[in-house]
Inverse folding.
């Protein structure tokens, strides 16, 4: 399906001229030959010529970076993304099959603690839904043509992929707003501290019975947050650059933006698989917090013991 | 089998823009879209050289390779065409194209570029040959009529050639021989003819 | 990046598209669209038939019309496809002998004429600053009444009839006849400001003032010198022929121009001269030629008179002096002269860069003398290939839309009037009565040159006591002529405002309609283009081509000849004007006009090209040879395409036309000629007739004077005439014998009807006998003014006082230090209204600009793309974009002249009738140009004046 071939690109462009140096030294006029090398040197650097055409970059004869972009996108990003996505899904599946769901150690206490306020949840789910839409549409734009067109047939495919593009372009900016809000709102929970080092050293307690201590957010969640913050901002910024091309960005800017956007998005998508897995299938009771806003004390004690203690001691700073 | 190519003899191209308006005329191309343009290097100085550029109908076309919707297709004659019904106006073909061939009617926010438009080698699109739909979306289909692209047919100095690559280069070779250069004219010229973007030397 | 072999091309995966096998086979057989001989061979009828057949099956039935591009004088053929009366397609005419299918931007955009979105749609008049729609009837009546009133009060000379090189031959002829019957010589057209100095200079050198060879004949040139000519932009298709010479013939191309033009980019040698130093440059070349004995001594001895006087002047032009005046170094001058001498035959090509000068007639004669010295005349591959501008400027010139002559260069003498009165079948006395019979400065207006188009504004503004006619001009009729192509914009605005009435007959409103502050008294009459009517058109090479009507007139427009008919009816001379011309459905029958032209144009041989013969050539484009234009088989075998004039005698005599003027290697009957005996038979005791040179098959083996009844009798050839011919030829000469008998007999004896003389290198009837370098009126080289001063002021030239010295004596070079020159863009033509209204063209040139050298731009403190004011030496200024380029030299700026619709910084878009403003507007370059006129023809000076350039502050 994904075949990355490197056949010689044959572009027949006439490129033959006399060395027009003949102008400068007319005595050489008779020996003038093709200025192939000189000419191509100029052209290959993407130098601007003059033209009566009005379009942007119309004066540039050869868009040299275009081929490079194509190679990067088609030869590296596209397959690497596919492998990463496939690999991650496979690992999660195997992990689930082997380890199964992380159950609560103790029975539910029935006592609920508020973990996520309504605004937090609204924010999370808005961003999450947008993320999924953007991921699906984005992946469709990157990979859809390899199988979906055959599956859907031209007419459906045309409508579907157009919908993807529209959804991506119009919802993207909303995602940016949601993400920014989330970053600002949750930043304070996600500052790394000493507890996290221990948490990491113990591997987050993914396997086995040991439960490393964690505050309101554990180390893993903080990583996800910072990934979303850093990579997410890159994705957002590059996305905006591409979405609002009306400011006259040149092709090279768009190529770079596209590559950053692609790589960043794939990283986030792969990361999101982990997040979603842990938040749903992987951990019993994890979804409840984001669903209802409340978690069972047992779950809190097990996964966020330090936070639990803070809540119990009445100095919970998280939901202030 | 014919492999259709354009070739612009820069020794003859005088930037008269005849190819540009011939294209507008034949394909009723709207204001703002330049399926073909003439670019001049060293304008106004010794070494001034003009070349008429449009879609070069690459054998391994970068636009095809990057199109997310797979809207491009290549005919038996090697002409790269596209299906506007599939085009979503993402602009990727423009980023990839070495020649700046893809054109977009709009440039609005939220990536609203409209359907891509480009040189069809006067071969229309996927609709029925010379149907009103094809004419409206893609312009003329001269190939179906046994004719060649209007830009080349109307070139004032016969600088722009179009047709089967072999025949185009035969004509070109003949011209070069007539020009009689001391370097043997053709000794290096086949190499000069083509630009291989995949084998760039850094 | 690497360049790979084509044969390495991979067979990329492809999808079947279901295109038929027959098509592929066709492609394989035909292969390519274009290119050299191979292509031309393959582009013969076979391809066209296939194309037509294929198209016809596509939908509505397609009618294919053969027409000729209306944008320049190359005369490119066009196949126009019409479906249900709509111009739906344009196909390249591969079989056309001039362009072989090729077109420049304008020709390739020709079909837009069938849309005409921005056309003037119905007659209109300006009332209180608003455009009001009129019926045709009201328009003709109102304008006609005004004219009759002015005629009564101020005489017929107070109406100015400005005609057009866009007319067909028939319309052009009719227009001149129309003006004559109105009773004035105040009639002119673009040729005045185009090649008038060429026509005068060249005709006075050897007989006829036209391109001597043809575009196709350039194939045989071994050297080509282009001076003041930029065909890559002005005549792009001609480059097809020039490249053929360059590539196949190894022709050496020298381009002489103050600008490094696109033509220069393709030359072997580019010579940059200071604007206005053409004569000095040519004399510089001749200095080397004479110094080294490179001249063609035999040719000069046999066929040139007065070369010794030129020699004496050339002696003064030492390499040092040439460098001082032109700026060209000795080494380059010598090299150029040597190339021309070593590569014969060679041809010279010139255009407006040479003609549009106060010294224009000197320039054109100097070019001719260069060719005479090299012996390049009258030979294939040689000649003076003068590229005319508009599509029919050659024809309109020949047919006399000129204030100084009747059709056929007969002049304005009583003899000329009698000749044409006879052709028109009107009494000479009736003709006289139409004119103002008062004598001004010894001449009656009927015999006195009228005001030229370059000076119509002076005809309005000048003190009427100083003009050689009854009153100032009061009604101005711009009939197919853009006013922004004439100099002195601010004065023109004043002039338009002073007029009683301005009448614009044109497919577009034009700059004239909007540039003044008039609130009323302007009429717009919608004429249609040449694609909405039919008739003949003369290309630069003197070939006459027939055009089919492509479509019916758009909107309410009418063909020019119909409008002339309507006006003549209103003005009361339609009976006389159309005496021999049938009127069908309100329209004069075009063929009848052609026949009347045939009846009277003996001087230059417009007599053999009957409508039937012209149509035959039109139907058989493919039978004419691409190099020689000679018919090869077919119904017009052995005739030259379009029967380039002179096509002697009557149509029945079947003369093939003259492809190369003064070519003695052919019999006159086969298109050969000698130099014309136009200037008498001797001067100061020295014979002006050729010595030992004569045409092939000539019965007279030496020079001879022009033929007349007396000469025939003297030679004993009188009895070769038929009885009928004898009767008509008695007392006549070759120009006035309406039977054509004198011409027939002369040709039967292998003689040129106009005699066999020497070309003259000195024109003793001109202000400068030998062409002299004279500094422009506005020159930055004040140090040269005393040595090369201009002429003294004249009290009357073409009815008007004309200044020279009094202008040159004022030194404005401090305030205005930069030379301003102007020229052409490939996308536009003339005043540009038509082409700027064509979106396909307008899109390519959206802004008026001035080219400035980087050094000047840096010194003056502006950058590329910034707005600047260019102020001409007489105060007219334009707001334009700076284009900083080395194309122009330091101290020289260039502006294209096609823009209009803006005046001194003010946007005039709102002043156009709604929907009729062109897509692109801009300042007219001529708002900044200045005074200066050639003393022989009143050619305006557009190529050298002074200006200053300043950054515009917002």
């Amino acid at each position: 399906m994904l075949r990355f071939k490197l056949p010689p690109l044959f572009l027949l462009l006439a490129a033959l001229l006399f060395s027009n140096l003949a102008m400068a030294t007319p005595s050489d006029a008779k020996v003038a030959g093709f200025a192939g090398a000189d000419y191509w040197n100029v052209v290959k650097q993407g130098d601007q010529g003059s033209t009566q055409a009005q379009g942007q970059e119309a004066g540039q004869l050869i868009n040299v970076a275009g081929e490079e972009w194509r190679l990067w996108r088609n030869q590296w990003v596209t397959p690497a993304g596919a492998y990463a996505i496939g690999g991650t899904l496979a690992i999660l599946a195997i992990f689930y099959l082997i380890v199964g769901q992380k159950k609560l150690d103790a029975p539910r206490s029935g006592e609920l603690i508020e973990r996520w306020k309504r605004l937090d949840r609204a924010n999370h789910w808005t961003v999450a839904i947008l993320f999924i839409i953007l991921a699906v549409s984005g992946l469709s734009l990157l990979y859809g043509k390899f199988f979906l067109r055959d599956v859907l047939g031209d007419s459906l495919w045309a409508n579907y992929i157009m919908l993807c593009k529209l959804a991506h372009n119009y919802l993207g900016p909303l995602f940016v707003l949601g993400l920014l809000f989330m970053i600002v709102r949750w930043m304070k929970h996600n500052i790394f501290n000493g507890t996290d080092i221990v948490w990491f050293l113990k591997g987050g307690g993914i396997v086995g019975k040991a439960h490393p201590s964690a505050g309101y957010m554990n180390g893993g969640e903080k990583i996800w947050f910072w990934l979303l913050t850093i990579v997410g901002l890159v994705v957002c910024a590059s996305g905006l650059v591409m979405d609002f091309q009306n400011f006259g960005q040149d092709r090279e800017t768009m190529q770079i933006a596209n590559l950053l956007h692609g790589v960043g998005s794939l990283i986030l998508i792969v990361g999101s698989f982990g997040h979603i897995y842990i938040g749903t299938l992987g951990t019993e009771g994890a979804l409840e917090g984001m669903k209802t806003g409340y978690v069972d004390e047992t779950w809190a004690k097990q996964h966020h013991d330090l936070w639990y203690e803070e809540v119990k001691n009445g100095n919970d700073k998280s939901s202030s | 089998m014919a492999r259709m190519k354009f070739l612009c003899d820069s020794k003859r191209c005088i930037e008269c823009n005849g190819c540009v308006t011939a294209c507008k005329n034949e394909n009723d191309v709207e204001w703002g879209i330049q399926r073909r343009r003439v670019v001049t290097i060293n304008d106004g100085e010794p070494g001034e050289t003009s070349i008429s550029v449009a879609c070069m109908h690459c054998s391994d076309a970068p636009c095809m390779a990057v199109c997310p919707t797979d809207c491009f297709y290549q005919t038996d004659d090697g002409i790269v065409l596209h299906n506007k019904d599939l085009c979503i106006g993402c602009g990727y073909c423009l980023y990839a194209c070495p020649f700046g061939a893809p054109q977009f009617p709009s440039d609005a926010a939220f990536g609203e570029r409209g359907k891509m438009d480009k040189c069809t080698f006067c071969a229309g699109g996927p609709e029925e040959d010379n149907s009103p739909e094809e004419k409206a979306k893609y312009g003329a289909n001269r190939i179906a009529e046994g004719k060649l692209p209007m830009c080349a047919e109307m070139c004032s100095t016969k600088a722009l050639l179009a047709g089967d690559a072999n025949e185009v280069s035969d004509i070109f070779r003949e011209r070069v021989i007539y020009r009689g250069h001391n370097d043997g004219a053709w000794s290096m010229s086949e190499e000069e003819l083509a630009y291989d973007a995949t084998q760039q030397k850094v | 990046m690497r360049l790979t072999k084509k044969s390495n091309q991979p067979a990329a995966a492809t999808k079947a598209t279901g295109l038929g096998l027959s098509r592929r086979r066709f492609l394989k057989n035909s292969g390519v669209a274009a290119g050299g001989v191979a292509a031309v061979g393959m582009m013969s009828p076979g391809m066209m038939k296939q194309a037509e057949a294929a198209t016809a099956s596509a939908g509505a039935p397609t009618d294919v019309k053969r027409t000729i591009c209306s944008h320049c004088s190359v005369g490119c053929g066009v196949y126009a496809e019409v479906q249900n009366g709509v111009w739906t397609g344009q196909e390249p005419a591969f079989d056309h002998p001039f362009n072989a299918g090729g077109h420049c931007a304008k020709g390739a955009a020709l079909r837009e004429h069938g849309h005409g979105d921005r056309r003037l749609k119905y007659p209109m008049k300006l009332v209180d600053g608003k455009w009001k729609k009129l019926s045709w009837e009201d328009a003709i009546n109102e304008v006609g009444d005004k004219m009759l009133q002015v005629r009564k009060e101020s005489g017929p000379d107070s109406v100015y009839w400005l005609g057009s090189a866009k007319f067909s031959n028939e319309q052009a002829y009719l227009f001149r006849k129309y003006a004559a019957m109105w009773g004035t010589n105040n009639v002119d057209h673009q040729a005045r400001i185009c090649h008038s100095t060429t026509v005068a200079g060249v005709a006075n050198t050897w007989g006829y003032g036209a391109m001597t060879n043809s575009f196709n004949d350039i194939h045989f040139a071994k050297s080509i010198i282009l001076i003041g000519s930029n065909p890559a932009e002005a005549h792009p298709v001609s480059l097809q022929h020039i490249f053929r010479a360059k590539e196949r013939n190894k022709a050496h191309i020298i381009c002489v121009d103050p600008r490094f033009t696109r033509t220069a980019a393709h030359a072997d040698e580019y010579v940059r001269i200071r604007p206005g130093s053409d004569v000095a440059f040519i004399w510089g070349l001749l200095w080397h030629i004479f110094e080294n004995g490179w001249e063609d001594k035999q040719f000069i001895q046999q066929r040139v008179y007065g070369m010794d006087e030129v020699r004496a002047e050339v002696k003064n032009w030492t390499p040092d002096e040439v460098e001082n005046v032109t700026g060209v170094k000795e080494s380059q001058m010598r090299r150029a002269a040597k190339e021309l001498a070593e590569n014969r035959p060679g041809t010279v090509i010139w255009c407006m860069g040479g003609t549009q000068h106060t010294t224009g007639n000197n320039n054109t004669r100097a070019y001719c003398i260069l060719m005479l010295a090299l012996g390049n005349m009258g030979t294939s591959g040689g000649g003076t290939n003068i590229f005319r501008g508009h599509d029919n400027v050659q024809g309109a010139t020949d047919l006399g839309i000129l204030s100084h002559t009747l059709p056929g260069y007969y002049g304005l003498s009583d003899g000329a009037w009698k000749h044409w009165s006879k052709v028109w079948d009107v009494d000479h006395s009736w003709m006289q009565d139409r004119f103002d019979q008062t004598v001004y400065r010894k001449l009656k207006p009927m015999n006195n040159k009228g005001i030229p188009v370059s000076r119509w504004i002076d005809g309005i503004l000048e003190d009427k006591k100083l003009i050689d006619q009854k009153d100032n001009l009061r009604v101005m009729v711009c009939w197919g002529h853009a006013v922004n192509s004439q100099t002195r914009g601010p004065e023109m605005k004043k002039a338009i405002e002073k007029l009683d009435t301005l009448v614009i007959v044109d497919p577009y409103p034009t700059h004239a309609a909007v540039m003044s502050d008039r609130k009323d008294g302007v009429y717009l009459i919608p004429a249609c283009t040449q694609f909405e009517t039919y008739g003949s058109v003369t290309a630069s090479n003197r070939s006459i081509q027939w055009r089919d009507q492509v479509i019916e007139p758009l909107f309410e427009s009418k063909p020019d000849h119909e409008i002339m008919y309507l006006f003549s009816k209103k003005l009361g001379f339609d009976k006389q004007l159309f005496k021999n011309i049938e009127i069908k459905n309100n329209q004069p029958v075009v063929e009848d006009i052609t026949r009347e032209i045939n009846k009277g144009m003996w001087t230059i041989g417009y007599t053999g090209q009957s409508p039937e013969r012209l149509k035959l050539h039109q139907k058989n484009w493919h039978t004419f040879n691409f190099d020689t234009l000679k018919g090869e088989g077919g119904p017009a075998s052995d005739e030259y395409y379009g029967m380039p004039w002179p096509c002697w005698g009557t149509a029945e005599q079947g003369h093939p036309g003259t492809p190369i003027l003064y070519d003695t290697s052919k019999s006159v009957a086969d298109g050969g000629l000698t130099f014309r005996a136009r200037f008498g038979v001797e001067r100061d005791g020295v014979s002006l007739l050729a010595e030992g040179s004569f045409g092939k098959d000539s019965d007279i083996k030496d020079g001879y004077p022009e033929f007349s009844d007396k000469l025939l009798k003297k030679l004993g050839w009188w009895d070769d005439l038929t009885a009928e011919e004898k009767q008509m030829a008695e007392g006549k000469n070759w120009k006035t014998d309406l039977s054509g008998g004198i011409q027939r007999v002369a040709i039967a004896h292998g003689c040129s009807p106009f005699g066999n003389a020497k070309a003259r290198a000195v024109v003793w009837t001109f202000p400068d006998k030998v062409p002299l370098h004279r500094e422009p009126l506005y020159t930055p080289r004040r140090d040269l003014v005393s040595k090369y001063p201009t002429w003294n002021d004249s009290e009357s030239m073409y009815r008007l006082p004309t200044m020279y010295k009094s202008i040159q004596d004022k030194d404005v070079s401090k305030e205005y230090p930069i030379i301003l020159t102007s020229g052409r863009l490939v996308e536009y033509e003339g005043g540009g209204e038509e082409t700027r209204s064509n979106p396909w063209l307008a899109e390519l040139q959206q802004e008026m600009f001035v080219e400035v050298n980087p050094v000047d731009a840096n010194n003056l403190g502006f950058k590329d793309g910034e707005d600047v004011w260019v102020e001409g030496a007489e105060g007219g200024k334009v707001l334009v974009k700076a284009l900083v380029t080395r194309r122009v030299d330091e101290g020289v700026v260039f502006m294209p002249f096609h823009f209009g619709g803006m005046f001194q910084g003010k946007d005039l878009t709102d002043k156009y009738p709604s929907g009729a403003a062109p897509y692109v507007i801009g300042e007219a370059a001529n708002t900044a140009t200045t005074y200066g006129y050639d003393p022989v023809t009143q050619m305006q000076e557009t190529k050298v004046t002074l200006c200053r350039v300043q950054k515009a502050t917002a």
Remarks:
- Chain C touches chain B through 84 residues (CB under 8 Å).
